[in-house]
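Suppose a classmate hands you a notebook page containing two proteins, each written out with its sequence and a corresponding row of structure tokens. How would you begin to make sense of it? This section walks through that situation. The first entry is reproduced here exactly as it would appear on such a page.
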Amino acid sequence: MFANVLYLVTMFIVAPMILWRMIRYGRYRRGVAEKILGLSSARAQRMRDDRECIWIHGVSVGEVNLLPGLARRLEQTRPDTQVVISTSTDTGYDLAVKHFGADRVFFCPLDFTWAVRRTLRNLAPTQLVLAELEIWPNLVRIADRQGCEVMIVNGRLSQRSASRYQRARAFTRPIFARLSWVGCQDESSLDRFAACGTPRDRLSVTGSMKFDDAPTSRTIPEVQSLAQWAGLDRSLRVWVVGSTQPGEEEMALDIYRDLRDEDRQLRLVLVPRHRERFEEVARMIRAAGLRVHRRSAGEAVAGTLPRDTVILVDTIGELRHWWGVAEIATVGGSFGRRGGQNMLEPAGYGCAVSFGPDTRNFKSIADRLIKHDAAVRVAGADDLSDFVANCLRNPHAAKSLGQSARDVVMQHRGATERTIEALNRRGSTRRSAA
């Protein structure tokens, strides 16, 4: 009850912002009934059959991208089970539908008791699998009470988040204690889950599934078609700046204008993180004295992309393939206070990878790449300009950096299989006990 009151108060406070975004950007409009009331029985009946149900939740695009391999292997190793997928954002939902089909995807209920109970009652899952870290009090508590195991895969818990949970330990510790199993990315996360209340015998280090998810082949049709559409032939030096936040596009544009005369083969591709900023970034490119070719326009570049034209990827879910077009990659969200984005996708393709000073969301991965001379951390615009210039002037060094990045990715694969083994082992134990 306390959690419900807290959520209602919070919703009342943020309602003006939500309403503004609904009107201005069209966000939060979809799936309102499923989010507030929970999954209906009619919708649940269309989603599942008589087999055992496993509910997997990924909050948005990054987490959803981890799920296809996991879901596929679960259904291969446990043919008597059916996997359904939930997500919380419009972009995550669209990507999940692309991977799994509309009949298996729904919006996760908000953490109100009535919405959670309705969803769990209608789905009747035996396992609830949460990707990375989605600790919702009512969801975890009610699922556990109904005999549904709650497990976290690819578990990541930063020191900052752990400290916050521990400051509210009277409220959060029982939630962590209810978790049936957590597959952690590293020992540090394992120790933090334990400190927050999860018994150590329910914790394992499985590694990061993001290594398994990282693409490694540039010859796949998705990459080849993007390069052809954009007029980016092999003679060009393509710099992709992806998952960008405010301030990062201006920085990339300034650097591009400074360096494009030094190397006439250099081309720039910008991929903003959020769709509501697409128009803003398009105006920014024009204000920089450059032309913009928008991915959403659909019309392919005629011939080779001109030097005065920047590709703006104003679509969702394509970034992982655009990294495959790049020779030089800069991962956004890392020059402000966002904590960075996934740098393993460009690393898997063998790009010369760079990122900014704030990569706390991917700390262990970023540190591992740097330790193996497989990526470069830059402090700001000047350092980033030097990095790109060095890649242009010394292509052999850039290629070596990219090969090292790809080697790190290949050496750390296997987390998905370790996770599957643990989920199946717990599933077998539960069925035997029943």
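The notebook's second entry, a different protein, reads as follows.
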Amino acid sequence: MKRYSEEAIKRDLKEKMVFVGGPRQVGKTTLALHVLGNAKEDHPAYLNWDVIQAKKMLLNGELPSDEKLVILDEIHKFKDWRNLVKGFYDQYKSKRSFIITGSARLDHYRRGGDSLQGRYHYHRLHPITLYELNKSCNPGDMDWLLKFGGFPEPFIKGEERFWKRWIRERQSRIIQEDLVNLETVKEVSQLDLLAQILPQKVGSLLSINSLKQDLKVAFETAERYVQILENLYHCYRLKPFGISNLRTAKKEKKLYLWDWSQCEAGGVQFENLVASHLLKYCHYVEDTEGDHMELNFLRDHSRREIDFIVVKNSQPQFAVECKSSDQAVSKHISYFAERTDIPNFYQVHAGRRDYEVEGIRTRVLPFHTFCRKFKL
């Protein structure tokens, strides 16, 4: 499968290095090899830090000869990786291009004392979404995505037994490998327990006080643990969007998982699917166009809520409410449409009805139609 960001990465390689970050097993290596020309992992231009021979070459300052594009995979596990990559780029930038990939959150770990500033473009690779699968956004594909998630291996395999084992093995590798390599945590078992708890919190305001009681740790420790799992691309949180003339929520965030298949089937799983599609849209626009994009939600002190708001350069672009069926327009949409200048509201659902309510700038439509409209 040709991934959605491939052409943008090829364009950026003409200017600078390209960093590709994203969750473990989302397809970063496959994407990089595809850019290289459908190559295999034994290609001389592919250097994986976890392979001893490749590690020795890199530490000796060696690169494969006659290769115009070089892929450095998982090199961020090396403590001084920034200076190593900087040296390669400064020496060979007129002759070679570089793709840097990593399963940990490169956009977080690259920041401290960033000696690479101005030398790379950054792309975040997301799980497969509807439009990427098929530009017609077949509703049947959505059922498959909900069940098996958007990570390529379990999605393509399409077997429940394989999917369940894959989830357990992937979580174990995140905790036992990525976490240990990149963070100092004494009680690793606490992170494993937290990862098991979080699917029950999806779509709700995440209370750190509640988590600290579940984990029996201090508030600061519980917050740090959640942040670590965010850095490792296990979960993400959305901030509330503030509106000056309304008493809206300001602090508590909503939680979602990168792998929505781990959520309980039904409305929560559908909401997480929508959140992930919208986050992918925001990240793609930000990574390719340079606009500052945010995915937020809207909630007031009377608990009226809109699930998502896409914000571009601090200005709301559109809001999205999720419903499991094609029911009437939410009263919360009507309330916020009358009191805000949000240009458009969408109520997405898994049914078939598609209609507009012009008085409140709202369109009710199937999610697969919405995905086709925004290329999600």
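A careful reader of the second entry would note: The two ends are 16 Å apart (CA to CA).
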